[in-house]
Amino acid sequence: MLKDKPKCHCGVFGVFGSPNASLKTYYGLHALQHRGQEACGIVTSSINGKNKTIFITHKGEGLVSEVFADSDILTTSLQGNNSIGHNRYSTTGSTESVKNIQPFVVNYRLGNLAVAHNGNITNAKEIRDELVNEGAIFQTTSDTEIILHLIARSKLNDQVEQIKEAIEKLDGAFSLTILTDDKLIAARDCHGFRPLCLGKKDKTFIVASETCAFDINMAEFVREIEPGEIIVIDDEAFKEQKVKSIRFNVEEIKQKHCIFEYIYFSRPDSFVFGNNVDKMRRRLGKILASKHPVVSKDDKKVIVISVPDSSNTCALGYQRQLEKDGINSKLEIGLIRSHYIGRTFIQPGQEKREVSVRIKFNIVKGVLENRTVVIVDDSVVRGTTSKQLVKLIRTANPKEIHFRISSPPIMHPCYYGMDFPSRNELIANKCEGNIQKIKEYLGVDSLEYLTMDELLSCVEEDGKENFCTACFSGEYPTEVDFTFKKEIYEQ
């Protein structure tokens, strides 16, 4: 698998009040598959013969369709009207990966509790150390388990208040779905780093990372869960068709939405941070073309191609803006992507990198041959895949290859839910931000990125200050324990 793109740390989903809650969750996780492909899981709450609430769990490594390949799991095993689910992001591998698969489930003095989490808790090491010193025993290396310990060890006697108390101790990014014996609870950190939204299907309430998970269930989007908000859905809320909203105590609600959700993570058919992602990606492409156009040296049209699939919409915006600005151009499908990549057996080293690209992509030679080609992509992380992609396109004998990136150079790691490699693996950091050096490494005729100002101009109407750009600027919105080991971040 190619690992030259940032990986999002998961997708979460929850259902309250549906006789086929597990099936709705299954379809929701399908729609959120792009947010994590390593593992997934579903937990449902059901009443047994003794009129006692029990939690039923099924989870495993692999895609949603693989983990739930046996339909009996959904129709027979995962019974209950309430459910939560989780997709785990792809990692470099962990010996404890099975233990780290969410949702996590515990049974404590106030009943059952399950949690699914998208994001990173930046003070997790500090909290974890305190809990261990107090006698807590951890079963995983995930920061999500800290939330369970904080709730279970609370001396309060109201479960919602316990959850609120636990959340108020957390720093960093978290979009949570929590299932109790009689409630579905969702919460979002006070900065709103990661998306989380509320939907409905008839009387059933649904919570999801992105609205595309509502569409697959034919549910309506109600609203985004606000930064610093906890919503509680129980029998009373179901009866009145109105969720309970609680604000947890923070000194300041300072929005810092991850701008990478617009650039890469979210599906283009989702509504995130108050905007349609498709609209934002087209806007990124238009600004990229306006500020960084490519003009052919002959009378032939400039051929604009995307690196499918994440940059398709941006490439469309780029080409349309070129035409609007009087530059003769055409959007073409120059790369064909295979969507059926399984396990491959290839040799390590250079051959492995080249074969990995050829397995995932192939060129349409007739589109590229003897033409000025512009490759539009959303980001370059390590640069290894981009370099091999350029090498592959060169085999079609284009006249020139130009690279245009709809984000600034990635110079810094993320601590809020993106799996970037270490700083010294980032090609922009290795080249000290020198775009000419990156251009030479990639082997293209020209390379240009969106600048920070150009990127932020895309979100100007929503407030530039409301977005996190730490991976580009190194300016982190919260205090971060930089000694926090990567294993603790794994989910």
The number of helical segments is 19
Shape, per Cα inertia axes: elongated
| Low-confidence runs | 343-348, 485-491
CATH superfamily of the largest domain: Aminohydrolase, N-terminal nucleophile (Ntn) domain
Question: What does this protein look like?
Answer:
The chain has 19 helices and 26 strands. By secondary structure, it is an alpha+beta fold. The protein has 2 domains: 248 residues, 4-Layer Sandwich (Glutamine Phosphoribosylpyrophosphate, subunit 1, domain 1), CATH 3.60.20.10; 187 residues, Rossmann fold (3-Layer(aba) Sandwich), CATH 3.40.50. Helix 11 links the parallel strand 18 and strand 19. Helix 5 packs across helix 6 and helix 12 crosses helix 14. The C terminus is likely disordered.
Describe what is shown at a glance.
The chain is of the alpha+beta class and 491 residues long.
Provide tags for this entry.
491 residues, alpha+beta, Glutamine Phosphoribosylpyrophosphate, subunit 1, domain 1, Rossmann fold, 6-stranded antiparallel beta sheet, elongated
SSE arrangement:
Layout: E1 7-8, E2 11-16, H1 21-31, E3 39-47, E4 53-61, H2 64-67, H3 72-77, E5 82-88, E6 104-108, E7 111-118, H4 124-133, H5 144-152, H6 159-167, E8 175-180, E9 184-188, E10 197-201, E11 204-208, H7 212-215, E12 220-224, E13 229-233, H8 235-240, E14 244-247, E15 257-258, H9 260-265, E16 271-272, E17 275-276, H10 277-291, E18 302-306, H11 312-324, E19 329-331, E20 335-337, H12 350-360, E21 361-363, H13 365-368, E22 372-377, H14 384-394, E23 400-405, E24 418-419, H15 427-430, H16 435-442, E25 446-449, H17 452-457, E26 467-468, H18 470-473, H19 486-489
Parallel strand pairs: 15-26, 18-19, 18-22, 22-23, 23-25
Antiparallel strand pairs: 1-24, 2-5, 2-11, 3-4, 3-5, 6-7, 7-8, 8-9, 9-13, 10-11, 10-12, 13-14, 16-17, 20-21
Helix pairs in contact: 5-6, 10-11, 12-14
